[in-house]
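Q: For a teaching handout, I want to show students what a protein-ligand complex looks like in token form. Below are the inputs, and the small molecule is zinc ion. Please produce the holo structure.
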Amino acid sequence: MLGLVTTQGATPRRRGRTWGGLLVPLSCPGCGAVDEVVCPACRDRLLRGPLLRRPLADGTTVVASAAWRGPARRLVVAAKESGRRDVGVVLARAVARAVVEVAWGPGTGPHDPPLLLVAPPVRLVSVLRRGARPTPDLAEDAARLLRAAGAQVQAVQLLRHTRAVADQGGLDREERADNLAGAFETSSRRIGSAGVRRSSAVVVVDDVVTTGATVQAVAAALREGGLKVLGAGVVASA
Ligand SMILES: [Zn+2]
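A: Here is the structure, written as tokens, with zinc ion included.
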């Protein structure tokens, strides 16, 4: 529940938005706990639970840090809709641990560094509407975390739209796949720049996988472009 407290006497934990001299404390979007950013319990559920592994119809393996329900779902929605940076950082950690499993987990083969993280291309209209590009940001934040841990990882926006696509919301599984089939292609301008090679190993990054249509369309475009798709690392999977 969101309450109001005066800024006077606010402790450092009572971080929030100042509004008319009052401090509106942030609550944990995962559970609603007041006075927290993302509370330790929701953080643990996202970052310490067992990883979920899910093969898609095209053979691409998705590794998710959590199931698409409860706090994980609410945190993804909060990051998308409110653009809360603190939530974005926790989601990036969730993606980073899924990426580690995809790229270096049991059963993975060798690949030359750097590993590339590629998010689905973002439509300009969404950027304008939300004022942010959450999924590419997620890839960049996850890459930064992995580099800090010593891995050679780079986030690259390798894809662009080949045509206009409808918003995926409200479409069923088949419609989503049709909507995105052949909708993306690799940008040759970006391949060859900054150590990005045609044969580079790539992990697809996204916040949530439901039908798998987006991840499969992204993976198809990357494979078409000659890149080696190791799988997808996401925050949550349905
Ligand atoms: Zn919480």
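A: Two things your students might notice: Residues 28, 30-31, 33, 39, 41-42, 71 surround zinc ion (CB under 6 Å). The helical segments are 40-47, 70-82, 85-104, 124-130, 134-148, 173-180, 213-224.
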